[in-house]
Model the fold of this input.
Amino acid sequence: VWRNATLRPLLSARYLPHELAALLQAVHAPAEPTPPAPRLSAAQREWCEARLRALLGEELPLPLIEALNALLRVRAAPRWLAAECASCLADCVRRPGGVRALIVSLRGRDEGEAAGRSRSEHAIRLLGAVPRNAPAERYYADLAPQLLDLAADSDAYARCVGAGAISTLARRRAPFAASLLPALGALSPSVTAALLVDAPPSPAFCSLI
Done:
C-alpha cells in the first residue's frame, strides 16, 4: 500500500511522523536501565535501521521535512529526539530538491508581508547553519546548485531565501563565494554585488531581486 502512487501522499501526511518517531526511538533512543518495553532483538533493530535509511533516502523531501518539522514542534519531545530530527532534517535539505522543499514547508499559508519576511529569514538561518554531522565543504557543495536555482526563481520568496542563504554562506566561507562567482554572473549585476554584503536580506534587497 505504501508504494501505491495514489495512496502514498495521503499515508505520508498522516502516518509518516509517527513512523519516523518510532524508528528513531528504536534506533537512537538512549538505553534505559529498566526499559518500559522489552528490548528489540538484533534482527528487529537491523530491520528498523534499514527501514529508517530507506525512508530518509527514498521518500520525497517535502513529506519528510514536514514530518520532521512536526516532531520538532512537539514541546514534550526528549532532547535526543529533537537532535536526531534536526540531523535528519539537515540530511534531507542536502538532497536534490531539499532546499526548495524546506522553504515550501516553512512558507505555509500566505499571511502577509511581515510573516513572509520572518519565514524567509528563518529559512536563511537554517540553511546558513552547517550541521555538525556533515563536513562544511560537502554541505556547501550540496547546497550551492540548489541555492543558485532559487536565486534565479520567478517567485520572490524563493529568490529572497536563495540570495540570502548564498550571502550568509559566502560571508562565512570565502572559497564558497569564489566557487559561485561564475554562476552568479548570470544574475543581474546589482543582485550579484548585493549578494555578498546583505544577509539576511533587507526588504529593499528582496524587492531588488
Notes: The mean pLDDT is 76. The two ends are 44 Å apart (CA to CA).
